[in-house]
Amino acid sequence: MRGSAAAAALIAVALLAAAPRIAAAADEPVALADGPGRDLTIGRCIICHSLEYIPSNAPAMNRGAWQKSIQKMKERFGAPITDEESQEILDYLDAHYSGKT
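^ that's the sequence the OP posted. Answer follows.
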């Protein structure tokens, strides 16, 4: 039992030491690439989730994957995005955040 108490204490100390860095990273805004559709993308996506979702998922995404994601956001989660806006957001994401071929 003594070993697990020491391990728990070490984890707690590590988390406390990391907390300021974690908080600072959370406060830093995600800067999306400049281009047509950027402002619309930010305005619609930030309603439901962090913008970090975009660059963090980019390596696994291509145009088709972004299109499915946008459609899912609209149909399953009720994102307030028109068909025209969907196309502009898709074009933006495909141009700047499609890492998968």
